[in-house]
Design brief:
Elements (H helix, E strand, L loop, with lengths): L1 H26 L1
Amino acid sequence: MNEPITVTYDLAEVLKELKQDIKEVNQN
């Protein structure tokens, strides 16, 4: 039960970081 929740949380964190990186790239 814990593994799927952890994976989902990790994916959410990765998506947040990717969105921030994309914003920074678009600004430059």
